[in-house]
Amino acid sequence: MDYAQNFYLQPTSIQSNSNKNQTSHNIQQFKLQKNSNLPWSTSSTTTTAIDIIQINLTKSKVATAHLAKLASEININQFLVQEPYVKEGKIASVPRKWHQWLSSNNKAGIISLPSTNNPIFICSATNLTAIKIQTITGPVNLISAYSSPYAELQDTAQDLANLLTKIGPEQALIGADMNAPSTLWGYANNRPRGNIMEDLISGFNLHLLNEKNSKPTFQRRNAKGWPDLTLVKGVQLARTASWKVRDELSLSDHKYIHTQLGINVQNHTYTRFKTAYGGHRKFSMHFRKEIPQIQQQLLDCNTRERLDETTSFLQRAIFRCCQKAYKLKKVKQSTKITWWTQELNIKKKEMRAVQKRANNTTGTEQTRYQLLFSRKQAFY
């Protein structure tokens, strides 16, 4: 069955979910172009990978707050989250400096850490949200999606199909909790929901990063499963990707899924000056030396091109004088976790030890450790 052509033939309009209003966006206008002519007032650094964490937070305030602790321990650029703890239309319990986007039903979200360039928001539909980041090889779309086991999966699949159709040949990574059992990603049997996802994957030539024999991405005392899928659009992007289920305690019944994309990203930072602590006289002294040349260029302006050149010269002159007169302002890239204490760290280690014992035992002993883990987790 040609899923892309026969089943999802009519892509519908996708609405953005901003705080002020909702407007329809043509996704093509957000295409990013590789730009080698950087502004003279910026500096750039290059990272060799994009680290993405995917997880269903089960609407837990504690699990959502724990993202900040994880980000302080390992390198993370983006979070693709499902069912985060939401308050007043925003993902709560995370640092304010983190950028965030939510689907219109608040069940799928993306969090971008300030250590990366500001991404471009693409759209929010009922069951998904999407952003675009620029890499050296071109734009990459990041998509977070969720489908409740009690909802029609076809609605979320339709949202995904609409978006994948609109972004055209651009690369994309999808982190989704679809609750769609299939033997392709670990379940013992196929279900109709799994068949829908298989058709979507084949119809859009997506690459499944999940490993068939991986650890469960969802686990409770009496249940386990693999509902969380990581999909990639684009052969080259898929070749650079690594995928694993992490062992850290997430304080959710889902596990952290760590995807690393081995592509280079340039991070650009604007130079900022400290102007509140003096230096103005020194700036004036240096700028006076620039005035005669600026005046002459203004007198010679007789075309639009000359006016552009003069404007650029004026900006550069101001920037040079600022460099001589003011100190540079340093921007903090990380947020200290003030609520994390040594006592919490000890309790976390105790929980981890009990969880390991529960995983390595069977029968009544396993049940006993599972109950002990549940009590310790509730107390934590």
UniProtKB/TrEMBL annotation:
<feature type="domain" description="Endonuclease/exonuclease/phosphatase">
    <location>
        <begin position="141"/>
        <end position="257"/>
    </location>
</feature>
<dbReference type="InterPro" id="IPR036691">
    <property type="entry name" value="Endo/exonu/phosph_ase_sf"/>
</dbReference>
<protein>
    <recommendedName>
        <fullName>Endonuclease/exonuclease/phosphatase domain-containing protein</fullName>
    </recommendedName>
</protein>
<dbReference type="InterPro" id="IPR005135">
    <property type="entry name" value="Endo/exonuclease/phosphatase"/>
</dbReference>
<dbReference type="GO" id="GO:0003824">
    <property type="term" value="F:catalytic activity"/>
</dbReference>
<dbReference type="Pfam" id="PF14529">
    <property type="entry name" value="Exo_endo_phos_2"/>
</dbReference>
